[in-house]
Amino acid sequence: MKDMLTPYVTDDGRQIGETLMDMRNITLRFGGVEAIKDISFNIQEGEIRAIIGPNGAGKSSMLNVISGFYNPQEGEVWFRGKKRPPMKPFQVARLGIARTFQNIALFEGMSVLDNVMTGRLNHMNASMFSQALWKGRAEREETENREAVERVIDFLEIQAIRKTPVGRLPYGLKKRVELARALAAEPKLLLLDEPMAGMNVEEKEDMSRFILDVNDEFGTTIALIEHDMGVVMDLSDRVIVMDYGRKIGDGTPHEVRNNQEVIDAYLGVSHD
Amino acid sequence: MSADFLYGIEVIINGLMAGVLYALVALGFVLIFKASGIFNYAQGVMALFAALTLVGIMEGEVPFSHLINAIFGTEIHHFGWEVPALLAILLTLVVMIFFAWAVQHFVFRHLVGQEPIILFMATIGLAYFLEGIGDLMWGSDIKTLALGLPQGGSLWVEDMTSGLGGDDFYGFFIDKLDMVATVVAIVLVTGLILFAQYTKQGRAMRAVADDHQAALSVGISLNFIWVLVWSLAGLVALVAGIMWGAKSGVQFSLSLIALKALPVLMLGGFTSIPGAIVGGLIIGVGEKLFEYMIGPLVGGATENWFAYVLALIFLVFRPQGLFGEKIIERV
Amino acid sequence: MLYREAGDFKTSYEEDSQTFPIAFDRYRYWVVLAFAFLVVPFIINDYWANAIVVPFLIYAIAAIGLNILTGYCGQVSLGTGGFMAVGAYACYKLMTSFPDVSIVIHIILAGGITAAVGAAFGLPSLRIKGFYLAVATLAAQFFLVWLFNKVSWFYNYSASGQINAPERTVFGVPVTGPNTEAWAQYLICLVFVTVCAIVARNLTRGSLGRTWMSIRDMDIAAEIIGVNPLKAKLTAFAVSSFFIGIAGALFFAVYLGAVEVGEAFGIQKSFLVLFMIIIGGLGSIFGSFAGAAFLVVLPVVLKVIGVDLLGWPTDLVAHFQLVIVGALIMFFLIKEPHGLAQLWRLAKEKLRLWPFPY
C-alpha cells in the first residue's frame, strides 16, 4: 500500500500532490439511523478518487457531507490544510467545490448557455447599480465570463446546443451540460454523483474521456460515485468502498479488488 | 371572580365558536390538498356559491334571471314557489357535485403533474370564475338565509352563569347559532373520519393521498377519487356557507372571511385534519383575545390581519405547521 | 422588410447578448419609442389617458415588479396591493413634508422605501416556500392596509382618512393635482415605465437575473452551485417592491389624485397584478406589458359592448368580467403557462421561417 499522506506518482505518470481534502471520523445520523459511521479518508490534489458500494451504503450522503448539504454530527472536515467549520452549501461552493447530481439538477427554464453561466456566478460581482445600467463592470464581466464559459462549451463539445432550452435536451446531453456548469466554476475539487448512470456504452466512453481530460488538462481533483466497476477501475487512482455506512476498503483499484471484505459485500455473505 | 376576567373567558368561548367555523372551511382545503395536492383557494368562494344557490333554490329564484332579462327584455325573477329547506339543501348538494365534476373534467384533469404553485394560481382563477357565475345566477345583492336556525344569545347559558361574577356581570353571552355550528361541525368531522376509515371509497381516498402512482397501479380511478374529494369539499363548503350565511347574511365578504382558513391551515399543517381543527380554534380564540386586549390600544379591527401575521411568525419557526410532517430535503 | 436573422451575424459576445438580437426587432423598438414619446402626447385626450393609457403604463410597472419576484425568482406574492400602498403613502408623506423637492425624486424615494418594506416581508421566504409563502404575503397585504387605515399620521390626520395629492410640477408643468393635463400625466408615466423596463431587462439578463432564475428553477441546486438563497430572494423582493412602490406612487399621485387605502390597494389589486403576469407571461418583461394592456383594456371593451351597445346593466357586465377573467386564467395556465408573450414568441418563430413551415 502506498503512503497516502505524501505526494506520489501514478502508474501513468501523473504527479499527485498534497492532501486537498481530509475527512476525519465522520458520523452522520438521520434521527436514529446512522448513514455514515466513523469514516475517515482523504483526497489528494490531482487525484481521481472513487467511492463505491452497494445501494444505500451512504455514498451520496458522503458526497453531501463534502458539499456541505449535510453537516455531520461528529468528525471534522479539513480542506486545503484548514479545518472547515459547519457551512451552508453556497459557502462550500465558494471554497472551490463544485458537483453534479445523481438525478440531474439543471435549471430547466433556462438555456444551456445560461445554465453554464450560473456556474460563473461566484466569479461575477458587479454591483446591482452597474447591472441595472448595463454599463462598466457588469458589461465587462458578462463578456469575460462568457469567454470562459465558451471555452468549457468547446471543451465538452456542446456548441451546437448553446441556445437550446435545457428542458428539451435528451438525458445524456443534460448530464454533459451539468458537468459543464460545474466545470465553469473552475473548482479545486469536482464531485460527480454517478456521472454515467443511465448511459449507453458510447455515452459512457465519452463521459470517461471528459473526466480524464478535465483531470489532465485543468488538474482538477475529482471525487466520483459510480456503479460501473469497469469504469471505476479504469478511471480512478484510489477507491473507497462503503457498505452499510462503514468504510470496508480503501486503496488502489487493484488492492480493493482483492480485499476479502469488499468481495463479501459485493458477492454477498450473511451479515451477522 | 372579577368581571374583566369573566369577560375574558367569554371572549375565549366566543373565539372557540368562531374557530369552529374557520376549522370547517379549513377542512375543505385539507380534503382536496391531501388527495390531489391542490391548494384550493376557491374553497371560500365555494362556500359563498353554495349558500347563494341554497337561498336561490329555497326562494324559487330563476337562475341567470338578470342575464335572461337583459338579453330578451323579459321581466322574470321568481318561479313563484318555495322549496322546503331540506329538499333545497339536497338540490344544492347536487349542484355542488356537478360543480366538482366540472372542475375536475374541464380544469384539473388538464393540469395533472403541474407544479403546486401553478395549481394554486389556477384555483385563484377558479375563485373568480365561480364568484362571477354565482353573481350571474343569483344576483349580487345581500341575501338572508332563513333556515329556521336558532338566532341570538342563549338565555339559558346567561342565566346559568350570571351568578359567577359580581353585580356588573350578567352571565356569558353565547350565540345559539354558534352552538349549533359547533355541534354540526363535530358531526361532520366524525362522519368524514368514519367515511375515510371504514368505507371502500374512503380507503381508496387515503391510498390516493399517500401515493398517486401506487393507487393507480392497484386499480383506483384517480379521476373518480378527485371528483369525490371535490364533492366532499363542496359538502363542507355548503355547511360552512349555511352557518356563515345564517350568521351574517349571504354576501361577497363571506368568501373573504373564508380566506382566514388559509392561516388556519398554515398553523395546522396542510395535510392534517386534527391540525385544521386545532388551528381553527387557535386562530379563533387568538384573534378575539388579541382584539379584546390589544385592539383598543392600536385602534381596533386587528382581526383583519392578526391571523395572517400569527401564521407568518409561527411558520418562520416551524415551516411544516403544528401537525405537518417534518420536511427533509434531499438532493 | 422581411423578418430575418439570416446574414445578421454576430461577431462579439456583446452583440450576441443584446436585448433585440434581430435587426428588425431593434428598429421596431425605436419606432415604438419614438411614437410613444413624439406622437402620442399630441393626440392624447382625457378619456384615453384616464381609461386606458395611464393605468396601462402604471400597471405595467407593477407587473414588471411582480414578474421579477414571481416570474424570475419563483416567489408568489399576494401582497402587491399592500406594497403599492406603501409606495403611495410614502410618496404622499414625502410630498407634504418636503414640498420643495422634485416629485420625481419623491417617487423614486417612495420606491426605495417600498423596497425596504418588501425586503422585510421577504425575510420569511428563506424558511417558507411555495404557496405557504403566498399565504404569508397575505399578512403583508392585510397588515399594511390596516396600518394605513388606522394610523392617522400616514394621512396627516385628515378627517376623511383619504390622502390627496397636492399640485407638483416638473419643468413648470403640473403633473399632480387637479390642474394636470392628460399629456403631462401620460409623459411622466411613460418616462418611468421606459426607465423601469430597461432597468428590469438589464437586471434580468445579467448575473443577478441568473441568480433569481436558478432559485426559481431549483433552489437546492442553486445553493450548491454557490447562490446565497437569502440574498437572492431578498434582492428579488427588494427590486420587485421598488418597481411596485413606484407604481403605487404614480397610481396615487398622478393617476387617482386621491386615495382611500382599502379601496385602491385592497387584495383585489394584488390579484389583478398577479393575473396580468399570468396572462402576459411569467418571466417576461414584454409579457408584463401585454398582460397589463390586456386586463386594462378588457373591462373597457366589455363595458363598451355590454353597457353601451347591448344596454345591459353595469353590474351584469361586471359579473361577466369576473367569469371571463377567471376562465382566462385557467385557460392560460392549462394551455400556455408562458402567457401572451409565448404566443408572440411562437408567432415570431413562424415568421422567421415564413414561408417555409420548418
Automatic annotation (TrEMBL), chain A:
Pfam families: ABC_tran, BCA_ABC_TP_C. The keyword Nucleus does not apply. It comes from the Bacteria. Keywords: ATP-binding, Nucleotide-binding, Transport. InterPro entries: AAA+_ATPase, ABC_AA/LPS_Transport, ABC_transporter-like_ATP-bd, BCA_ABC_TP_C, P-loop_NTPase. One of its GO terms (cellular component) is plasma membrane. GO terms for molecular function: ATP binding; ATP hydrolysis activity. Residues 21-269 form the ABC transporter domain. This is ABC transporter ATP-binding protein. It comes from Yoonia algicola. The lineage of its organism: Bacteria, Pseudomonadati, Pseudomonadota, Alphaproteobacteria, Rhodobacterales.
